[in-house]
């Protein structure tokens, strides 16, 4: 059999497809994962509380006061309650960590809030400070044993 | 050449010349027209402008200082501010570096009155101190009164010590009378004590003679000395809180916008159209508003502006200020805080600060009120005028280093020469010298 240029071209094409397949698969998975992250988190405001939920998460988080009322460059406290995905009381207790920052600015808060437990799944988060106007993310990390779930939402802090 | 052709050539030249003249006229006229046209502001922009306007009634006294806003304390504080007896050698006062004739700042890159080589930062101006959350460029003090105590004992500045300061108050009738009218009688034990020894705490240098002398004093004496010392800071702070530039041309313009009177033919805008265009840039394209917001034109927080590299050979600003702030014997957690000890409102901001690697190279955003008076600029004092500062931010991407922790939004602005001129014109509308005139006139 004579191997000509045409055969070499087809062989090259097959090889490059084979090599790039895992990378493509990984990229698609990553993209789906990111889409899930973005699409799955919802937040709604009810009275003075913002309820954050996330698809396929075991938890929901209730933040008081509602996020749209948070002040610019003034310390504020929040009450954060962790509930089940259907916003029912949890039959066990969890730990909570709170973080916040501005992705568009590449920085977090200039403060480290103090978290005090009020009851099994209700916490007082003291000393939050959004020192610049713009979009801030708030991330609630819920820990039970070694398992950690995070719920995140964003809030626009106007001038 | 035929006569007709000559005519045609002459005509063509004349036509070309006329077109050039007309074009030049139109260009100059257009730029004149742009420079003289008042920009319109959207409702959102108008709301932002109102948030920047001064609200004199809204200023609150400092609850950690029981004599904040007290008229006698303000007068005493002003007297102390200019009094050279407060320095160790009687040569310097607070006003030596915060000179009212220089906008309560100093027109020097670095002011090092004792040639100590220890002063690394430009003298900050004192405008709008009443609004601040933290003090000094790096925020190592949490109240204006505790800040005022540092320079009194700093060897590179007034180089005094707290025992001698008590002695100065006791030995000078004018100072003693004013002090006791405001803070009550100085404890008898101090009147009888030997105050000739130079003493102050110096925990980092335990063998320092002044530190040893301080340790030798009784607890009661130390407590009383610290009480008088902190009260001097409180009187100074009461005066410094009055250094406000609230009646600027910008504030008048904001009022005109609020009253919607700029359309009246008789109404003359308080700032020029060029400055108004600069204001529009300030709250828009130039993005100055991201850090310079509120009526003090400052967020009072800390940012890295790429003036110096963030390594341990350079000034790390806020990063190195956290521990001294938490250890400061006169901070809000101390017994010298006049807020009731059960009221945590004015104590707990110390509970939330921490040392974060992100804080390296960060310095406090200065107020822009009276900024035209307080050159040179930045904590390094490296820019001689505001045009240089605008140029710096306009091309800031050139100064960034890959190792810098960046505020991503802080990138070159791509302002045109005209826009830079407009921004400068706006910054010049933030001047109000009435307080300076009153102080200099009253002295």
Keywords:
heterodimer, A: 159 residues, alpha+beta, six-stranded antiparallel beta sheet, four-stranded antiparallel beta sheet, extended, B: mainly alpha, 1% strand
At a glance:
Chain A is an alpha+beta fold. Chain A has 1 helix and 10 strands.
Could you characterize the architecture of this molecule?
The complex is a heterodimer of chains A (159) and B (443). Chain A has one helix at 5-40; strands spanning 41-46, 49-54, 59-64, 76-84, 95-102, 107-108, 114-119, 122-128, 134-144, 147-157. Chain A is of the alpha+beta class and 159 residues long. In chain A, a hairpin with a 2-residue loop joins strand 9 and strand 10 (147-157). The longest helix of chain A has 36 residues, at 5-40. In chain A, 23% of the residues are buried. In chain B, 42% of the residues lie in helices and 1% in strands. Chain B has helices at 3-35, 43-52, 71-81, 94-97, 144-153, 162-171, 173-183, 188-192, 209-216, 219-240, 249-259, 273-282, 318-327, 386-394, 417-427, 434-442; strands at 302-303, 363-364. In chain B, helix 2 (43-52) packs across helix 11, helix 6 crosses helix 7 and helix 6 packs across helix 10. The mean pLDDT of chain B is 91. The A-B interface holds A 72-73, 75, 104-108, 110-114, 126-127, 129, 131-134, 159 and B 47-48, 51, 289-291, 293-294, 299-302, 348-349, 351-354, 356, 358-359, 405-409.
| Overall average pLDDT of chain A | 84
How many β strands of chain A by DSSP? 10
Structural class of chain A: alpha+beta
Strand content of chain A: over 45%
The general outline of chain A is extended
Q: What's the helix count of chain B?
A: 16
Overall, the morphology of chain B is elongated
Order of secondary-structure elements of chain A: HEEEEEEEEEE
How is this fold's topology laid out?
The complex is a heterodimer of chains A (159) and B (443).
Chain A lengths: L4 H36 E6 L2 E6 L4 E6 L11 E9 L10 E8 L4 E2 L5 E6 L2 E7 L5 E11 L2 E11 L2
Antiparallel strand pairs in A: 1-2, 2-3, 3-4, 4-8, 5-6, 5-9, 7-8, 9-10
Chain B lengths: L2 H33 L7 H10 L18 H11 L12 H4 L46 H10 L8 H10 L1 H11 L4 H5 L16 H8 L2 H22 L8 H11 L13 H10 L19 E2 L14 H10 L35 E2 L21 H9 L22 H11 L6 H9 L1
Helix pairs in contact in B: 2-11, 3-10, 5-10, 6-7, 6-10, 12-15, 14-15
